[in-house]
Amino acid sequence: MNITFIVPTVFIKRNPIYRLGGRLYGTSNAVTGPLILGGMLRQAGHHVEVYEELEGPVRYERLLRETDVLCIYTMTTIAPRAYELADLFHERGHARVIIGGMHASALPAEAAAHADQVICGEAESVILDCVEGRTTDKIVHAKPICDLDSIPFPDYSILKTPVRCANIMTSRGCPFRCSFCTTSRMFAPYRERSVDSVIKEIREARAAGFEYMNFEDDNFTADKERAKDICRRIIAENLQFKETFFFGRTDLARDPELLDLLAKAHLTRVLMGIESLNQASLDEVNKHQSIEDIKRACAACWDHGIRVIASVVLGLDSDTPQDIRATCTFAKSVGAYQIQPAILTPFPGTPVYDSMVEEGRLLTDDWSRFDMTNVTFQPKNESPWELQQLFWQACNDFYDLPSALRIWRKFGPEYGLRRVYLAAVTSIGVPLGYWVADHVPATPYYQLKRTPWKYAENPGATATHATVAEKSEHPARATDSHPTLLSTVASRLGWAAGTVAGTLRWARGLILG
User: Fold this and answer.
1) What is the pLDDT of residues 39-86, one digit of tens each?
2) Interatomic CA distance for residues 431 and 422, integer angstroms
């Protein structure tokens, strides 16, 4: 049979300009699940192709004619696109449609309205039976794989939208269960692969020509001794990549030997969940870390040349606007390489979602807005519109020329120029967002700005005292008036051009002495 796997993405991310920006932001990589499942089906004798809409255009006319079984991966924000593709293949093709992934696992009945079958959970144990027709249940609940070494490696030969970075998952799940996290519920319980299996896959990725690698584990350093063993093997066998990304927790800084090994093995880019500098908020989401842990980890990573992507959650019930600003300011002050200011998002299947539904706080059922950059609920300490402003402000304040130069001096021109690029994009994108909120009624930002705040003292209020106070602090962000889009973007383009030119002059002086 001809089997096609699709990893969809939202409309804006299918734009060539967005794809180019994504490549400037980081190194392209693929979701491993379809590559593992597709590899199993290829070994069983089927013709398999895997496509990532984020990484390149997909020629659907041919796939509609030739596909016998369509397998679609879902996360919450791409669920509407997944359903759109499923309906398209039902209407114009002849394929059976199977939908899986985190969103479908959380809301299988919803996905079943668009699919012939829905697979909930880790699909390795059921994919062959579902595709070949031996399992015919509408909703199939797959059991977790206990022996991760028994699962084949991702098969990149079937990927038709090529990527530059190999993804390797050395464990599944996480010993910690933050209340907003979906993956610790999709992949439960926590399980590990053997070090030998991990090293074998790394060897194959190197042999395939990959220069970059991601450890996809939710928490690569959860088992510190095992992480150290993997790093030692990488070092001993000279299996370092140009750069390896991993997810880690702040407790990694308690182990100096681990930090040394991570750096020597070229695990030099880490996403750490700082989340908040308010201990009450950390406790609220079951983060199991202290403010001191955060400060120690950021300093230790800087000292070891490990670039920190600081993940900050905006909108926690215990955080005030001042707490949010303080956390984002801290991330910049400790030299974080990038910031990921994630608006708290109530993903289905998490305790946060359940509590939001129970309290009547959800603002929308449009899953495409559940991407951690849009406000989708009623916050308790700021209006929905103010929370959106705090997100934009975090991006705007973090990415500037002085911090880009600091990153350049510490990590080199490649990473300094990426910061310059992000500063330029943010300086244009934020004013554009404000203009859209004022002038384009069909957009979520326009609607959000006019959404009454559930917790306001005056019913129907849409702003708080903090929003009003920001009018004098940030005139261009005033809620009642904005410069024209043309003048704002023109001035920002001038700033961006000046930033790039200034950076290049600075670099030339540095090189020539």
Assistant:
1) 999 999 999 999 999 998 999 999 999 999 999 999 999 999 999 999
2) 15
